[in-house]
Design brief:
CATH superfamily: Aldolase class I
Helix content: 25-40%
CATH architecture: Alpha-Beta Barrel
Largest sheet: 13 strands, mixed
Strand content: 15-25%
Order of helices and strands: EEEEHEHEHEHHEHEHEEEEEEHHH
Strand order of the largest sheet: 1-15-14-13-4-5-6-7-8-9-12-11-10
Distance between the termini: 22 Å
Length: 352
């Protein structure tokens, strides 16, 4: 696994909060308020996608390093009941590999200020989990699917699990985990010719498709901007087969720009994190599986909550750390800056 750097980012420096307004909300210096929480439940995954990790995987976190069920539930409770979080998305790694996933979702859904809950998954185990997830209170799912070609799927994921993903999508639709969203990354010379096919597949089955620009979050640090399929290219490919018109519905803080397909009602979204960044409207706060706070997907620093929590910190101390972390959030990811540095931890350890 040469070239893979899994060092934990530097702990953030102390931030001057003297100008911070007197509010419990997760405000930052640029007027944004974080109400969307991304919770990475586990760093492990049962796929080995080429744009995410090496073929032989990564050094996974040890069990003792992961937040346990009670610790995870406590931090989610604090975020929702004390800090104004209204949406919780569970991610990984692959969150369906976490044995207490259903219990954590159930505890989250049972909170007095019940947040909207969602799950981002590769879909492999979703066929078995869709029903218990719904019973626990999950509202909807996002499923990653980059290709409709079984051989390309095996090439990209290094696993022969294509049918399992299709079964997972169908189960989510049957259990009304809607909207069922499909996330797809196009890669030059591999699956970039499938844009139209993916859109037709999703429209025919009632799924919502979102294309995502490939981001510099791979463990190997092989990402190159000039090799990335951009949002403009994606739209060009789709426009050759469909009539696309901008969706006039207010986007708000949603990461995807949306277009009506052939006049609607079907839509397609494009998340252009690299070429059309939406940092000015970002409303996210992030918690990793090992209890680290991140104010941005591309943060190079983290704030440790696990250590203070295990040392006996009360809720007030954890709230203070969380508020300070978000107050220090940068204006943007700085990907167009000459000083941009790819996070040392890959997407599987950060959470999507």
């Amino acid at each position: 696994m040469t070239g893979v750097d899994l060092g934990i980012p530097l702990v953030r420096r102390t931030t001057d909060t003297s100008a911070r307004p007197d509010t419990s909300q997760l405000v930052d210096r640029f007027g944004r308020v974080a109400t969307d929480m991304r919770v990475s439940l586990i760093d492990k995954c049962n796929l080995r996608c080429t744009y995410c990790m090496p073929a032989d995987g990564l050094p996974w976190l040890k069990r003792a390093e992961l937040l346990d069920t009670a610790e995870m539930n406590r931090l989610i409770r604090i975020a929702v009941e004390e800090l104004g979080v209204t949406t919780v998305r569970f991610t990984g790694g692959e969150p369906l590999l976490r044995q207490d996933l259903v219990d954590i979702i159930g505890a989250t859904a049972a909170l007095p200020s019940r947040p909207t809950t969602s799950l981002t998954t590769n879909g492999i185990n979703l066929g078995s989990f869709a029903e218990p997830l719904v019973r626990a209170g999950l509202n909807r799912v996002n499923v990653s699917l980059d290709t409709l070609d079984r051989e390309v799927f095996k090439q990209l994921t290094r696993r022969d699990r294509f049918d399992d993903v299709l079964d997972g999508l169908a189960a989510a639709k049957k259990m009304r985990l809607e909207p069922v969203k499909v996330n797809a990354v196009l890669m030059r010379g591999i699956n970039d010719h499938e844009a139209g096919d993916l859109l037709r597949f999703c429209i025919e089955r009632g799924y919502q498709l979102r294309f995502i620009e490939q981001m510099p979050l791979d463990a190997q640090h092989d990402w190159e901007r000039d090799k990335m399929i951009t949002a403009a290219e994606i739209l060009d490919r789709l426009s050759a087969e469909f009539s696309l018109t901008p969706d006039v519905a207010e986007r708000g803080s949603a990461p995807a720009e949306r277009w009506l397909v052939d006049g609607g009602p079907a839509t397609v979204g494009v998340i252009a994190s690299v070429t059309r960044p939406f940092c000015a409207a970002c409303d996210r706060t992030r918690l990793t599986a090992d209890g680290q706070l991140r104010s941005c997907l591309f943060s190079t620093t983290e704030t440790d909550l696990r250590g203070p929590m295990r040392a006996g910190a009360d809720d007030a101390e954890l709230i203070r750390l969380w508020q300070e972390t978000m107050w220090a959030k940068a204006a943007g990811h700085g990907m167009d800056s000459g000083e941009f540095a790819q996070p040392s931890r890959p997407m599987s350890a950060i959470g999507g």
